[in-house]
Automatic annotation (TrEMBL):
Superkingdom to which the source organism belongs: Bacteria
InterPro entries: MGS-like_dom (IPR011607), MGS-like_dom_sf (IPR036914), PurH-like (IPR002695)
Pfam families: AICARFT_IMPCHas, MGS
Stored PROSITE patterns: MGS
Gene source species: Streptomyces nogalater
Protein name as annotated: MGS-like domain-containing protein
SMART domains attached to this UniProt entry: MGS
Domain annotation MGS-like: ranges: 1-132
Database matches in PANTHER family: BIFUNCTIONAL PURINE BIOSYNTHESIS PROTEIN ATIC, BIFUNCTIONAL PURINE BIOSYNTHESIS PROTEIN PURH
SUPFAM superfamilies the UniProt entry points to: Methylglyoxal synthase-like (SSF52335)
């Protein structure tokens, strides 16, 4: 998560509603510093962060938790059989790549897992809230509070609006990656490195 504005307040609100907090190591540390109980995503999946943090959330426990359709018999059977945890709210944001930077070091800052999780949550917005903007945290807490902490009891239109915003955000992010790679290719013509 790039922008941690309001994350401890959101975490506190979600905790009060009975939701378990799971985060990457940096965000989990921030939540813990605020006195909240937060599990590191690697503890959820059983796989630690790898390759300097490049691989964190790519695991069936995470994507299964985001994509499984509540009440769908085959999905429910898979969840039980494989111990896939339920993920009801995904909070994830990321910044566009710098518009004028063509240094190859920017490649390391390309977020792969975040946009993939956002897409998964937004695809399954009937059962999962995809939250990409700190400006929405208050509305998310209000909606969940009114629904007794149950995502499926929140207004379907609200869930769809969050999903639309999530896909708009990932599309903008992908455009920024495209612009960066195109500028890099223009500034360093030649064959791609192996």
């Amino acid at each position: 998560m790039t922008d941690k504005t309001g994350i401890t307040e959101l975490g506190a609100g979600l905790s009060r509603l009975g939701l378990r907090l799971v985060a990457t190591s940096g965000t989990a540390a921030l939540l813990r510093e605020s006195g909240l109980d937060a599990t590191v995503v690697g503890d959820l999946s059983g796989v630690p962060e790898l390759m300097g943090g490049r691989v964190r959330a790519f695991h069936p426990s995470v994507f299964g938790g985001l994509l499984y359709r509540r009440g769908h018999p085959a999905d429910e059977a898979d969840v039980r059989r494989h111990g896939v945890p339920r993920i009801d709210v995904l909070v994830c944001n990321f910044r566009d790549l710098p518009p004028d930077d063509t240094s190859e070091g920017v490649l390391d800052s390309i977020d792969v897992g975040g946009p993939a999780m956002v897409r998964a949550a937004a695809k399954n917005h009937a059962d999962v809230l995809a939250v990409v903007d700190p400006a929405d945290y208050g509305a998310v807490l209000d909606a969940l509070t009114a629904a007794g902490g149950r995502v499926g009891a929140t207004d379907p239109g609200f869930r769809r609006r969050l999903a639309v915003k999530a896909f708009v955000r990932t599309a903008a992010y992908d455009r920024s990656v495209h612009r960066f790679l195109a500028r890099l290719a223009e500034s360093r013509p030649g064959r791609p490195r192996p």
